[in-house]
Predict the structure.
Amino acid sequence: MKIDRTDKAILELLQRDATLSVGQVAEKVNISKTACWRRMQQLEKQGVIEKRVALLNAEQVGLPLTVYISVCTNQHNAGWAQNFQRVTQNIPEILEVHRMSGDLDYMIKAVVSDMKGYDRLYKKLIDADLSDVSASFVMEEMKHTTELPLDQL
């Protein structure tokens, strides 16, 4: 898919505020509402825009502690990987799971209420038959954004 300057401007606006109406976006990028609506529909259809969501403040909803969990396993087979994925998918505090290169196998990002909350999460996570688990807790968030850079487009 070719993304032109207008599409890029639409994407930048929607990344900052997905509540903008089609009319507001159209006005800001200087095109008609109809043309803007068509472009936005095409960006969604092609999967460039995956979904539009409300981003919540974790602390305000009782989940002030972010934890990054490093996982190593000695089982590198499809059955174990499927079970690990099933276990992690069923723990709502887990926000992200990534299979990694290098010394660790998986990196998990989760949010919890406190250390007891992490302990409850850990007890659910070990159902995946892990060999080595290490947790690091966020002490200070220095940058957080969901906006992807679009300079390469």
In short: The chain has two domains: 5-45, 65-137.
